[in-house]
Amino acid sequence: MLPALAVAADNEETFIPRKQQGIPGPPLSPQEAIKKMDVPEGFSVELVAAEPDLLNPVAMTFDEKGRIWVTESFEYPRHEPGPGRDRIKVLEDTDQDGVVDKVTIFAEGLNIPSGIAVGYGGVWVANAPDILFLQDTDGDLKADKSEVVVTGFGRTDTHELPNSLTWGPDGYLYGLNGVFNYSHVKHRGKDYVFTCALFRIDPRTRDFELFCEGTSNPWGVAFDPNGQAFVSACVIDHLWHLTESGYYHRQGGPYPPHTWKIESIVKHKHQMAAYCGIEYFDSDAYPEQYRDRLYMGNIHGGCINVDVLQRDGSTYFAKPRPDFLTANDVWHMPVDQKTGPDGCLYVLDWYDRYHCYQDAMARPGDVDRLKGRLYRVRYQETPRAQPFDLTQESDEALIARLHSGNRFYRDMAQRVLAERASPAATPLLQALVLNQSASLKTRLHALWSLIGARQLNDEFSLQLLASKEPQIRRWAVRYQGIKTSNNPAIAKQVQALAHDESADVRLEVAILASQVDYLATLPTLLEVLHNSSDDKLIPHIVWQNLHPELETKTPEYLALMTQAPYANDAATLALLPRATDRILATPGLSVEHVATLVKLLAAHPQQQEQLATCLQRIAEQAQSHELTGDRLAQLKTELADSLSTILKQGPDHPGYYNAANLALAWHDPAAMQIVPQVFASSRQPTPRRIAALDSLLTTEHPKSLELVRHYFEAPENDQAAVGQVIQTLGKTTSDAVPDLLLSRLDSLSPQNRPKAIEVLLQRPVWAMRLLSQIETGKLDKDSLSINQLQRLASTSNQEVVAKVGEIYGTIRSGRDPSRTFVVAQMRRLVTSQPGDPHGGIEVYNKLCGQCHKLHGKGQEVGPEITVNGRGNLEQLLSNVFDPSLVIGKDYQAVNVLTVDGRVLSGLLVEDSDSRVVLKMQGGKQETIARDDVDLMKTSDTSLMPEGIEKQLQPQEIVDLFAYLTLNKPPEDPAAELISGAGQVNPERIVLPQNADNLLTDAQISTNIDHFAAGKRGQPRDVIYEPKLQKFLTKSQWHEIGVDGGADLGVLSKKDAVTWTATWKQPVLVNFITLSGAYPNQPQPNTAWAIEAKVGGQWQTLEQGVGDWYDSGRYVWGWPGAISVPMEAFRVRIFSPDEKTPVRSVHFRGEEGFSWFVGNLPPEDNVVKQ
């Protein structure tokens, strides 16, 4: 046992897991945990290993002898690289009873080893920043040789480290990296800068490459029987089919320029979105209905989710099946799942209260370091695995294992055969691949054995390329990307497969097109696309491999697009708008090429919609100033006649409106008339009107602001459209904008007023007008958020900076630490009165929906919050009222200053040589030409502003949380409150017996002596000590007050009766309970205030009249809530008005309840059931 780990046991009761679905309660023993688990009928859960043999397990794998290799991490969540306390263990069951009885430490000194694989003579370990290869050279099962295979992985987010090292069917070692773990691998002369990605390493050559990029924090990769890759991911959709060269939807952060992202393969969701581990289960140890499924560990759900795959062209679509295992224990954290040699599913359990990285970062010393479990889910009396050692088996015996009904043996035998690369095995494997009487699974494993050994010769490859089985043809094509042949016959055969009947085969040809010299890249890609028009995946992959070619091969591309069949093909023509954008963004490429594309589309009446899109892309580049000067003039020369022809055809032509917007860039007379009419017409759809306004403003059309003024005066315009018009006003430099907006500020809707203020802050002259309104008191100082003030204070315009200083003083540069106090206040508010979730929808749409999507509604600027960010009430309160407490780098605001003085703030979508694209609040994207960018800086605070409580009435806040705290829409009968939500009944509160009352160490004082004779009790008599189960002092009534008939006169709040507790050093407080006076003593309208001193200032927690003080109970905060640092605490009693005297003041203690001030962890015995 490591001595430093023993501390955790003493601190166990201080854990505060803020972001968790339920109150954890105490940990269960492994046997107790198994008893609570639910599995399907006929199955049972068995314990394979547990503490102390297994501690903090992160990843696992099996070797050729059936031994289990596990990584353990005591360093998590440490960020610093270097040696640590973590280790690798080998677990063995020597007597075949299903329980580990021998444990060997293979390696120590590691630092969060997040992935492990065994093969090729050693052990591969993800130990950021490195991928290590460890070897035991003397046979004592101890690593004595270490090689750094690859280095450069980040440690910026240690729950997104490189992970899930898994052998692929092609013989590569695959692994994953997360979206917030910024990595820069320099390997063999190449630079790889990436975040979320699936990477791979060739174990023979040590070559490293990115297989594909995207998703979120993927943790778990599995391959189906066809060798297709699937990963489970967190926060966003949970299941993804990953294809080489693809770029997938990202949780956050910018995409590379011109990316056409690929989406997930699911439409459903299981429980909360925290996934870890995935296994494609294919074993005859289970009944048929439990095979050929993906089993995924759901950490927040404490279960194993199940999806079944269906083909959808070259990709897949997944559907849900019932959970395979439910732990019914919030400590259960399934971090890895593997099929064992007995054919059963093994589940590795980290076992901890802390599900979330943020919790571990907040209190790393309280992460449990003393537990860990490994379970086996067994069907009936499935036989135990007998001893074996595949490394000692003959080639023939290993090939026989490729027929096994348990994929464990097929995979393991395949890898051993590939490692051996035995020439004697080659003809046997070739024969099996061609044996049509064998199952396809077996034939593919035989093929993968040859591919892993890199032993496909040209003659056999030609046979495979001509196979009747699509999956074999597909893998024969893929092998050419691994080990390319120079045989012309192979080149001819592969080229012919561009129009193969199988979408899987065509997909591989598209990927190969940019990898080998013998394929003409552009013709091959276009041929594949021409034959795959209805496929969901292939167009994305074709584009991903095609658009880099346009840097140097645009003339060839244009020549091909003028030829049959591509000139008349819907699938190939559909890429022309993207190609237009790509060509325009490439320095040095003539706009004549773009004109050729436009003319090509214009020549095909059936492609007029594509023409319209193409013209829209060009117009947008003109509006963003990406297309200016000589290039714009050249484009006018090339396209003026074509656009004139379109405009003469009138609005019935699909390209009419976009042609007008583009022609306005060079002040075409017809466009000068058409575009204003489009914006002015209420019959036109909003998107078209906004596009017209964009053109009017960027060209400084003389009528633009007059038209906007008329637009604002029209009563029929909906508020969403008005908001878009307001945001578009930032495109003009006119000094008339402040008057236009400031004169209407008070009449704007609550959701549009902030947009108007945001626009006014974009230019210094406008900002000065706005600040002048604030300085003279015409606008409230709270009209500007701290984010906006920080932006103004950092601008290069000194007049603006000086004015901000005059009005607001010094502007802090980071998060406001007092937000924890606001969080506490808001918790009291939302738990003290009922809210209307339907009313909350209105508040959400007005405020939160401008940046977040919930239940399919809202904008995708910040994180999607249907299954993320609302794990419990404390997490939700923190995210809403203290948004800068924890910010992923990709959610930090980026401020851009343009050369003409405009200031923009948003999330970075693209940062390329040609442009910067920001996603603004409300979802609007703003494109700034690179030449227009003067300065770009990342903010230290979240794009989500602090202080939204100032924009809402208390009831609106309560209604909003009534909506946000439901796990489903309010109209859904199954909607339930998330953990910690709902009203609190103080009468049901019982203090936990292990609670520390901070009042016992405080200096207690009261001023009751100054008001009347006959004082009862002493200040400390009301303090209850839960650990002693009695009051702190002996007294008859446990009260402090005056005689029943005492009249203290009229007391102002300043002169109130006060009971005060003061600490020498600030204490953390998240829970306060008080008891009021006896019912026959105070008058019912006594006023009261409960206050805390925070940062040297007294802050009001709550105040009122009567209520709890009249014989009731008061509760503030909640166990496990975010703590507030307090220097002192006090209760004041005073008159409710200038006439009512105060009589019979009493503070009373109540046994088992009050008075109590503490910092409590989540407990399951605070509320009586």
UniProtKB/TrEMBL annotation:
Listed PANTHER family: LARGE, MULTIFUNCTIONAL SECRETED PROTEIN, LARGE, MULTIFUNCTIONAL SECRETED PROTEIN-RELATED
Domain Cytochrome c: 835-968
Molecular-function annotations in GO: electron transfer activity; heme binding; metal ion binding
PROSITE patterns on file: CYTC (PS51007)
Keyword Ion transport: no
Keyword annotations of the record: Heme, Iron, Metal-binding
Cross-referenced InterPro entries: 6-blade_b-propeller_TolB-like, ARM-like, ARM-type_fold, Cyt_c-like_dom, Cyt_c-like_dom_sf, DUF7133, Haem-bd_dom_put, Membrane-bound_put_N
Gene3D superfamilies, alphabetized: Cytochrome c-like domain (1.10.760.10), Leucine-rich Repeat Variant (1.25.10.10), TolB, C-terminal domain (2.120.10.30)
This protein's name: Dehydrogenase
Native source species: Blastopirellula marina
